[in-house]
């Protein structure tokens, strides 16, 4: 793109970049400029968060401009593909946060050219650049790159006095300052990314500690309770092993559910329950026996997902029911079957466990073991619900009512 235009007549906007090489350079103090660059390097190392405002102030001072600022490109901003003004100094300071469209901005032209751009009366050339009660006679812009390659925006200075005209020396100094700005922005963004990564790591570490603590607490309770009710060390070992394996299968399922949620596709209640019943019932199926899941003909549109805590609790409940059925109920017979059903009722979900084909039930048991107590405590304590047991002759029926809010945890 080329804009080889001559100096404009008064009040007419035009790109006059070629004037930078034609105008005599004003007298400058090299030592002062070198000292300013050294000071910038020190500021960038010692106070990176305050560096960019300081750099803009230096740019305005060394160029003897009346306004200065940095415009960063935001292609996906709510306003569209725009440049947003940052760190403004001088007469333009009240306009911090203002945006100009990428396709109608001096900054866009600057990035397209890939070098310094000088514009006379920029508000005449780009109407979106106009500022109330402020006349801009010249605007000098230089591109800012991240790592020397990725375009980020532009550093610019403005003259509000027609007697102050920019030259090649100003462009050279601003280009050096823009290289500092690109390095600083990269450092700030890298530091921010590192801070976010460390914060996420800390969250994951705390979550891991929390989960391990919960598992150890549950495991400790299972061991203690099994020791009190077991008739022999072998019976205790088998009981604890089965319950810990149920916890392990539930935790593995939790991991798979969380992974799918991270992929942006959270599993539905039906699919989670289907997977849970499958992994818990697997050891008890075959030889004519089985555990089947009957789902509603039409799944409610407002169903929910099961949270990690509730999924683990449900896994333990189903394991206890399956273990009891294998010992005394339907799964102890060659033709026995368990049917699991669920339905949504308002803010609750009702899960039904129904056994059939097993030994006839004469009456409800007069004593309850640890497994029954564990189920009841889990339903009421962790799932905010209630449990009802019925003992018809054909087999045990369990209705578990759970709060939808508790299931999501």
Structural account:
By secondary structure, this protein is an alpha+beta fold. The protein folds into two domains: 14-193, Beta-Lactamase (2-Layer Sandwich); 250-407, Heat Shock Protein 90 (2-Layer Sandwich), CATH 3.30.565.10. It has eleven helices and twelve strands. Strand 11 and strand 12 (397-403) form a beta hairpin. The model is unreliable at 1-10 and 257-265 (pLDDT under 50).
Q: What structural class results from the helix and strand content? A: alpha+beta
Instruction: Choose one word for the global shape.
Output: rod-shaped
Largest sheet data: 7 strands, antiparallel
Total strands: the figure is: 12
What is the string of SSEs from the N terminus onward? Answer: EHHHEEEHEHEEHHHEHEEHEEH
- Helical run tally: 11
Mind telling me the CATH superfamily name of the largest domain?
A: GAF domain
List segments where confidence is low: pLDDT < 50 over at least 5 consecutive residues: 1-10, 257-265
The side-by-side strand order for the widest beta sheet comes to 1-5-6-7-2-3-4
The amount of helix comes to 40-55%
**CATH-defined fold name of the largest domain:** Beta-Lactamase
Q: What percent strand?
A: 15-25%
CATH architecture heading of the largest domain: 2-Layer Sandwich
Integer tally of domains? 2
EC number: 2.7.13.3
Protein name: histidine kinase
Enzyme class: transferase
Organism: Pseudochelatococcus lubricantis
């Amino acid at each position: 793109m080329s804009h080889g235009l001559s100096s404009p007549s008064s009040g007419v906007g035009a790109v006059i970049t070629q004037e930078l090489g034609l105008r005599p350079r004003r007298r400058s103090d090299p030592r002062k400029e070198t000292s300013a660059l050294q000071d910038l390097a020190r500021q960038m190392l010692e106070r990176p968060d305050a560096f960019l405002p300081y750099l803009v102030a230096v740019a305005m001072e060394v160029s003897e401009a009346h306004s200065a600022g940095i415009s960063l490109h935001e292609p996906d901003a709510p306003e569209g593909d725009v440049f947003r003004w940052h760190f403004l100094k001088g007469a333009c300071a009240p306009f911090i946060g203002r945006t100009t469209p990428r396709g109608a901005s001096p900054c866009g032209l600057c990035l397209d050219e890939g070098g310094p751009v000088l514009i006379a009366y920029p508000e005449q050339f780009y109407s979106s650049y106009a500022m109330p009660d402020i006349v801009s006679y010249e605007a000098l812009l230089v591109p800012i790159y991240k790592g020397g390659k990725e375009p980020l925006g532009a550093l610019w200075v403005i003259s509000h006095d027609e007697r102050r005209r920019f030259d090649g020396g100003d462009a050279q100094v601003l280009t050096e300052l823009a290289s500092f700005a690109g390095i600083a922005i990269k450092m700030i963004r890298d530091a921010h990314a590192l801070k976010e990564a460390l914060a996420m790591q800390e969250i994951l570490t705390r979550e891991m500690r929390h989960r391990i603590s919960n598992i150890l607490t549950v495991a400790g309770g299972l061991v203690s309770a099994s020791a009190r009710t077991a008739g022999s060390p072998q019976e205790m070992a088998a009981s604890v092993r089965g319950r810990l394996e149920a916890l392990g299968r539930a935790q593995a399922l939790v991991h798979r559910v969380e992974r799918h949620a991270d992929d942006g596709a959270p599993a539905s209640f039906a699919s989670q329950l289907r997977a849970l019943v499958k992994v818990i019932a697997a050891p008890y199926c075959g030889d004519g026996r089985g555990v089947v899941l009957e789902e509603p003909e039409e799944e409610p549109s407002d169903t929910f997902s099961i949270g990690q805590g509730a999924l683990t609790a449900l896994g333990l409940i189903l394991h206890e029911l399956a273990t009891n059925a294998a010992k005394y109920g339907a799964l102890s017979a060659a033709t026995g079957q368990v049917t699991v059903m669920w339905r949504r009722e308002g803010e609750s979900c009702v899960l039904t466990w129904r056994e059939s084909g097993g030994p006839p039930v004469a009456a409800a048991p007069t004593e309850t073991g640890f497994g029954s107590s564990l189920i009841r405590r889990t339903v009421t304590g962790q799932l905010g619900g209630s449990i009802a047991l019925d003992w018809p002759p054909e087999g045990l029926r369990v209705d578990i009512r759970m709060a939808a809010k508790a299931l999501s945890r």
